[in-house]
Amino acid sequence: MNEIELIVEMLRETFDGRAWHGPSLMDVVSGVDKTQAIARPIRTGHTIWEIVDHCSFWMEAVANALHGERMPDIESAEDWAKMGKTDEDWTNAQERLKRACDELVNSTKGLSEAQLTQKAQGSYNGQPYATAYRRMLHGISDHNTYHAGQIALLRKKTV
Q1: What's the structural domain count of the chain?
Q2: Full DSSP string of 13-67
Q3: How much is the pTM?
């Protein structure tokens, strides 16, 4: 297995596979209804819906970066979107999450191993930075795992 194949496997496992660490992002989102998705059991924390939109945003940003677009500024990006109001809005948010992962996986599959050292351009707090695709792809996999854990805990508080 080459590194691209490994990264694709990691992305899939952390998103909707049988990851070694526990439930994937889609495992913990599956079966969540709109009422659970909008609940805010931790007053100053995010909702499941907000986390789903946040994960979609960053998977889209990484996929776009693999196609040469700049990464959003981490400090000023509007990556915590406002939730919708209807069951249909919640379904659309979940479908966006799936599309974002599919696009990320397909964009990753299209890379050569040499491209993993190519740097995506972005900024943090207004300061420019460049991050290698390899690091960004491993990071988004970790990001999905982190937020899957948050959602798993929120689900326990909203049942």
Answers
A1: 1
A2: HHHHS--TTS--HHHHHTT--HHHHH--SSTTS--HHHHHHHHHHHHHHHHHHHT
A3: 0.94
